[in-house]
Structure formats: structure tokens, C-alpha cells
Design goal:
Length: 343
């Protein structure tokens, strides 16, 4: 049975023709889906014979919530979600004054091996399809009874390691027939797969590109991010310059502050020298402590000094607000703990 959410409108029109139906029905069916109707029987302007064919040929189910946690401090929701094959992923729903943001997963697990991230501990199990990514957003809207206005591809997995499915997902959520979420409200995070950054730049999208940098030198970056053994910081910076030139979009550099590893004033100066003059913003992230890892969060004093030092170099920087810390809201933590208990 085919998963209906995996299709864009043109593809679904073709699917309907294959089963002997008129292609114009595709838009009607999509309109029901994006009104949060996921049962073919409740699609009132769809004839009964077609409903029977749809039920026989297409799966329109959303992922299932296995566990749900709500932060007592800020209302952040963390969902552990089961896919059709019983693999588990996570997504996080964050409420802001400007709307609801969802952080979605793009893979089951991750093979990038970043040492401060729980998602990578067991490696990558498989890629998510475009429909499985979309399903997380629809599930969140169904749960919240409110529209999701911003999407962050920063959960479990490396989006550019699942490039084709991610591009299709971006197409569907941005489309007028879909969720119609503007590209400027979507952030895609990558640890720095250089060829794919160039490919993404050439697509001319208006999404925000976030680079997980976390260090100012190749030597230091290799200590915490295995991808640094393949692509140097200079190669990443060249790719970023190309992206900025092609899109005229500011890049965000993610920098997880780890106590005693990359959080000194000298580290901040080196990072400032690396980024000064670039169209960028630095998102400073107090690292989430994971029991399997030895990394610890920087002190508030060191974080403040780091931010002020970057600003002296003309580099705009902000400290990410910690949301959902009391519910293991960092990517991979909830799935990891659930698997440990289940086993």
C-alpha cells in the first residue's frame, strides 16, 4: 500500500489516473488532508466508489504518538513517534509569541557521529520519506489544534544526507495545495556536507541554512565531529559564501558550547576572526548533557563572555533559549532512553 503523503499533487494526479479516476480529484483529496481529514470516508465530495479504491490503494495514517511530554517551564512538547515499520523518531513542538515551531527528524538515527549528540549513538537506521517528515508536522497540528508556522529540520538525522526526500518535503510544505508554509519560515541544519550545500544553493530556495560548526579549527572540530575529517572548515566557508551569493540569505552558524572544550575567550576570538565580515549569525547553544557522553555544559559566565567577545568582532550572536530541558528535548535523548527501557 502506498503512503499518500509521499506524493506531491502532480504525482498523485498520475496515481489516480492509474486506477481509472479523474486527475482533478487529486486536488479535492489534498484539500481535505490539509483540513486535517485523514479518513477517506469523511471526504464529503468524494464519490463512494473512489473512496473504496483509495482505501484499497493508499495509506493516509499519521505517525503514532508513543510518548508525549510537556515541559512545565515553557510548554514545549516532546513527542516520541512510531512509524509504520515500528521505528521510532522524535519531534519537538515549541510555542513562541510569533507562532508554533516544530523541530522534525529527517532520519531514524544518524551516521554523522557528532560526539555531543544522542541521535548518532546507534548510527543511521534509515532515511525518512517526504511523507514521514510531513506526517510529523500534520501530527503536531492535529495535537495542538493550531497551525504550525515554522519548521526546523534539526531533529534526529542529517538532512543533507537524505537530500532528495528533504527537497521533496520542502516542496510539499511550501506548496499552496499543501501547508503553504513560506520557505523563509523553514530552517535546514547540516553538519557540513559540502557538495550538497552547493546543490542546495543552486536550487535558489529561501530557506535558512544553519551550519553546525561547533569549532573554529579543523583540529578542534575533528575531536567532536567526524565529518571534519572529510570536509575542512575552509571548504565549508567557501560553500557558505557561494550559498550567500546565490540566495542573498544570511547563514546561521550553530555553536554548541562544551565546558573546557570550545568555550574559552580565546576560542571566541578565533571564531570571531573566522566569521567577521560574513553575512551570518551565530547561535550559541549550551550543550545538552547526555549520560553516554562526557561533555558538560559551559557556565553562564563563560557563555556571556563568549557572546560579548564575538560581538566585539562584529559577529552577531545570540544564546539559544533552552526549551524543554526538563523533558529531554534534545534530539535523540527520548528515543534513546525509551529503547534502553524497552530492551
Amino acid at each position: 500500500m502506498k503512503y499518500l503523503l509521499d506524493f506531491n499533487l502532480e504525482e498523485f494526479k498520475e496515481e489516480l489516473v492509474k486506477i481509472g479516476e479523474n486527475s482533478f480529484r487529486a486536488k479535492q483529496i489534498f484539500q481535505w488532508i490539509y483540513k486535517e481529514v485523514y479518513d477517506f470516508e469523511n471526504m464529503k465530495n468524494i464519490p463512494s466508489p473512489l473512496k473504496s479504491k483509495l482505501k484499497a490503494s493508499f495509506d493516509l495514517s499519521l505517525p503514532k504518538i508513543v510518548e508525549e511530554y510537556t515541559s512545565s517551564s515553557d510548554g514545549t512538547k516532546k513527542l516520541l513517534v512510531s512509524l509504520k515499520d515500528n521505528n521510532l523518531i522524535e519531534c519537538v513542538i515549541m510555542k513562541y509569541n510569533h507562532g508554533n515551531t516544530i523541530c522534525i527528524s529527517t532520519q531514524v538515527g544518524c551516521r554523522m557521529g557528532c560526539k555531543f549528540c544522542a541521535s548518532t549513538i546507534d548510527g543511521r537506521i534509515r532515511n525518512l520519506t517526504a511523507g514521514e517528515m510531513l506526517g510529523q508536522v500534520l501530527l503536531a497540528q492535529n495535537l495542538m489544534k493550531e497551525r504550525i508556522s515554522n519548521i526546523v529540520l534539526m531533529g534526529s538525522g542529517e538532512p543533507l544526507d537524505n537530500y532528495d526526500n528533504v527537497m521533496k518535503f520542502l516542496e510539499i510544505v511550501n506548496a499552496e495545495y499543501g501547508l503553504n508554509i513560506g520557505q523563509r519560515h523553514i530552517t535546514l541544519s547540516t553538519c557540513g556536507i559540502v557538495p550538497k550545500i552547493y546543490e542546495l544553493a543552486d536550487k535558489g530556495l529561501n530557506v535558512t541554512l544553519a551550519i553546525s560548526l561547533h569549532a573554529f579549527s579543523d583540529e578542534k572540530r575533528k575531536e567532536i565531529m567526524p565529518i571534519a575529517n572529510k570536509y575542512s572548515i575552509s571548504e565549508i566557508m567557501e560553500a557558505c559564501e557561494y550559498y550567500i551569493k546565490k540566495t542573498n540569505r544570511r547563514i546561521t552558524f550553530e555553536y554548541s558550547l562544551v565546558k573546557g572544550i570550545n568555550d574559552s575567550k580565546e576560542d571566541a576570538k578565533a571564531l570571531g576572526n573566522l566569521l567577521k565580515g560574513k553575512l551570518c549569525h551565530v547561535n550559541l547553544i549550551p550543550v545538552n548533557e547526555i549520560k553516554e557522553k562526557e561533555y558538560r555544559k559551559s557556565t553562564k559566565e563563560d557563555i556571556d563572555i563568549f557572546e560579548k567577545t564575538l560581538r566585539k568582532y562584529g559577529v552577531e550572536a545570540t544564546v539559544r533559549r533552552e526549551m524543554g530541558a526538563d523533558i529531554n528535548a534534545a534530539c535523540g535523548q527520548l528515543r534513546r532512553s525509551y529503547l534502553e527501557i524497552s530492551n
